[in-house]
Amino acid sequence: MHAIELKNLRKTYSSGTEALKGIDLRVAEGDFFALLGVNGAGKSTTIGILTGLVTKTSGTVSVFGYDLDAQLDLVKQQIGVVPQEFNFNIFEKVIDIVIQQAGFYGIPRSVALPRAEEILKKLQLWEKRDVQSKELSGGMKRRLMIARALVHQPRLLILDEPTAGVDVELRRGMWEYLQELNSSGVTILLTTHYLEEVEQLCKNAAVIHGGKIMLSDTVRNLTSSLEKELYTATVSTTVGIETLGASIVRVDEHTLTITLAKGESITDAVAQLQRAGITVTALRPTSNRMEQLFLNAIST
Ligand code: ADP
Questions:
Q1: I want to staple 5 with a disulfide (CB 3.0 to 4.6 A). Which of 51, 62, 167, 249 is the partner?
Q2: CA angle 137, 156, 7 (to 5 degrees)
Q3: How far is the CA of 75 from the centre of ligand 1 (A)?
């Protein structure tokens, strides 16, 4: 069975914009799937249709075998959504936001309370349960959105750019939690602008462009054709770089290029330089692999 099966899905907005021009997409049960695309590609429209917020023009949508047209309530039961924008009541307490959501799904308070406790503890929000949500940090608000989306125990979790604006440290914590959820059997669909996120988390991915699926494959296949990640670093000195291996190359007295092998992070490379007495004062990626991936997808 597929968690999601879209056949010839089309959406034309009343403005005349053809947002989706016949999408065919399958996401297997248990998958961790990335839907990738530039702004305006059709990601939000697709998610909107799946979650009942946008009315499709034609085509079929099936979620765990339930048909969107005939069984909308059952489809909605299967899905938890984490939109990009925070959309909870900022004056409400954390715990009330989660419990209320359970109420929308007909879950009695006696069941919702222990469930909310478990989820909020896992997401490190239990200490904040009696705090108004406006008092939370950005990372906490993001986690509250996830907690709220999980209280009815959906089999499919959809996240629209879950780590946008989340700092690197918190991002790792969120990745771990999402991975744990996926291991426990929850199918996850996410959109993101970070290729690193896709490589760390996702098994399969599709590239959507101009309302069409251009590519759908394993993440390994999609990223194998991409060039290695390349950075240009401005440094205090280039003396001593000879000992650091072929991946670090001198451009001039104060400039290096750093090529990362698969699995290596730029943070490690900077630390390596630091140990050799070389301070990095500026760093910029020379090639953007996500853009490369889009270009590959569009040109195939
Ligand atoms: P993405 O999420 O990938 O940025 P969207 O699904 O939001 O893409 O948009 C796809 C296309 O549909 C874009 O051309 C966008 O301008 C258009 N669109 C999105 N929402 C609406 C709307 N409510 N009314 C009219 N056009 C829309």
A1: 62
A2: 125
A3: 23
Question: What stretches of the chain adopt beta strand conformation (E)?
Answer: 2-12, 18-28, 32-36, 58-63, 66-67, 79-82, 156-160, 187-191, 204-209, 212-218, 229-235, 248-252, 255-260, 280-285
pLDDT digits (tens, 9 = 90+) for 161-211: 888 777 777 788 888 999 999 999 999 999 988 888 898 899 999 999 999
Kindly tell me the sign of the dihedral angle through the C-alpha atoms of 294, 298, 299, 300: positive
Domain 228-299 CATH superfamily = Alpha-L RNA-binding motif (3.30.70.1560)
pTM, to two decimals: 0.84
Where in the sequence of the chain do the CATH 3.40.50.300 domains occur?
2-223
Q: How far, in Å, CA of 46 to CA of 276, rounded?
A: 49
- Identify any residues that bridge with 209 across adjacent strands, giving them in sequence order: 212
Strand partners, 213: 208
- Percent of the chain exceeding pLDDT 70 equals 99
Two tokens, residue 265: 């992070």
Provide, rounded to the nearest whole percent, the portion of the chain with pLDDT above 90.
66
Please list the residue range(s) of the chain that carry CATH number 3.30.70.1560. 228-299
CATH architecture for the domain at 2-223: 3-Layer(aba) Sandwich (3.40)
Confidence of residue 300 (pLDDT cuts 50, 70, 90): low
Ligand 1 center from residue 25 Cα (angstroms): 19
Please say whether the beta carbons of 208 and 37 come within 8 A: yes
CA–centroid distance, 160 to ligand 1, in Å, is 14
Residue 17 CB–ligand 1 contact under 6 Å:
yes
